[in-house]
Amino acid sequence: MPKTSNIRIFVDIKDLKTGQVVELGKEQAHYLLSVMRLEDGAKISVFNGISGEFDCRLIINGKKTASLQIVDKTKDFKTVPDIWLLFAPLKKDNTDFVVEKSTELGVSAIFPVITEYTISDKVKTQRWKAQSIEAAEQSRRLDVPEIFEPLSLKEVLSKWDKKRKLFFMDETGAGSSFFQKTNQMTEPLAFLIGPEGGFSVQELETLRACPFAHAISLGPRILRAETAAIASLACWQAIKGDWQ
Amino acid sequence: MPKTSNIRIFVDIKDLKTGQVVELGKEQAHYLLSVMRLEDGAKISVFNGISGEFDCRLIINGKKTASLQIVDKTKDFKTVPDIWLLFAPLKKDNTDFVVEKSTELGVSAIFPVITEYTISDKVKTQRWKAQSIEAAEQSRRLDVPEIFEPLSLKEVLSKWDKKRKLFFMDETGAGSSFFQKTNQMTEPLAFLIGPEGGFSVQELETLRACPFAHAISLGPRILRAETAAIASLACWQAIKGDWQ
Q1: Cα atoms found within 13 Å of the Cα of residue B227, Cβ hemisphere only
Q2: What residues make up the domain containing B133?
Q3: What is the sign of the dihedral through the CA atoms of B116, B117, B118 and B119?
Q4: Measured between CB atoms, which of A106, A178, A218 is closest to B221?
Q5: Quick one: A94 and A193 in the same domain?
Q6: Is the model's pTM score more than 0.90?
Q7: Measured between alpha carbons, how far is A180 from B156 in angstroms, rounded to an integer?
Q8: How many structural domains compose chain A?
Q9: With a cut of 0.95, is the ipTM above it?
Q10: Confidence grade of residue B5 (pLDDT, cut at 50, 70, 90)
Q11: Beta-carbon contacts below 8 Å between A and B
């Protein structure tokens, strides 16, 4: 009997249906055959971010090539709430961490924003995409967050769709408490977290003058940027999102 | 004029008073003189975890020795809420991360718990203490979380003070939603997060049978252990703790 695996992979194919055979790319075939050492016929879960989740059987076509036959639909598609995370890229490990954790916490899109004190302006969105796919596979999400191309804070604010409320973490402590503001935190919404050095005085003034932007505070201690990003998403999901 | 620094350090001295001179240990003197290159007279904040926060002046006594003269009390002491984090140690980076982030999020004590599927049984509590002090310094906490010595889950439960409610993350999804349970989450309380592999069936049965333990769920996605630890602390602080 071929082993049943707990493996769950994302396939970038628009339409998935029972009976269909999906050719795997080189990397995924390598992962399943050489890293995970799966046998022909092994059971795998797949999702494509729009059709739900399916059970598949692995078909090994050669040493390095494989495909999947879709056997059964196991979950209907369900999207995460419409909540974006805008954040100023941090040092490598911390950015990796934010991408992984925000995906687990059900963010719908990740938006790198370049602020005055942003240290890292080399934003590797391809790397972020790969990381968010991996986190989506492991967290059993049915979709993958969208990763936007970086923009300056000024551009972001000037192009902002005013239907989406923006909550920014005001580390000066001048914002309302998170919980107090939750009744206003209806979808679509976005959280904006500044860089390690915080927003500049000018940026804070601009943000405070935006009618769609609301300052919030995350308590009496100074949180690092990556902690604030994760905390705000977790709190929102618990109070208003899909953890209810 | 000597530079004013933004440096804030913890000193392990029971009583701090204006006018007092505090001798610095070798490591802290090295940090201030050689790493931060502070000059004689530089301004520093200190806290000892019980007396509040003080402004001090650096006194350089030699190439490698220094002391601090306490100039003024700047903050009265305030403790964090009485909330413990019990968690099964993870791989090194993830454990480091939990210690740092839970300190920022105002945990009062960190308690390593060895469960059936805990990978790492080498718990370096000395390392954790140093990490939590650093995070307390940076997050501007006035105290430092207590780090307990590791115990097995069985021992923890058998010695448990029943006045402290225990909320454990039930990754089978059988727990109540976090927000639903918050009205019961009064201090003193503790959150318990299992290891990467989850609790064993036996452990879940034992926990469910404990009258002081309550199963909670953190939504429809599978969170990694470190994400669950941080999310539970952040949500509690936002809803019931000192972020209000």
Answers
A1: 28
A2: 83-239
A3: positive
A4: A106
A5: yes
A6: yes
A7: 36
A8: 2
A9: no
A10: low
A11: 115
List, for residues A91-126, the tens digit of each pLDDT value.
Answer: 888 899 999 999 999 999 999 999 999 987 678 899
Q: Does A221 touch chain B (CB under 8 A)?
A: yes
Looking at the domain assignment, is residue A68 inside a domain? yes
Which tokens hold the place of A219?
A: 């308590």
A153 and A217 housed in the same domain: yes
Residues contacting residue A128 through CB under 8 Å, at least 6 positions apart: A95, A99, A110, A112, A147
CA distances B31 to B2, B4, B49, B64, B66, Å, are: 17, 16, 20, 10, 11
Please judge whether B106 and A221 are an interchain contact, meaning their C-beta atoms are less than 8 angstroms apart.
Answer: yes
Task: Tell me the nearest-neighbour CA distance from B238 into chain A, angstroms.
Answer: 6
What residue in B sits closest to A222 (Cα-Cα)? B139
Which CATH number characterizes residue B138's domain?
A: 3.40.1280.10
Do B102 and B207 fall within a single domain? yes
pLDDT band of A42, cuts 50, 70, 90: very high
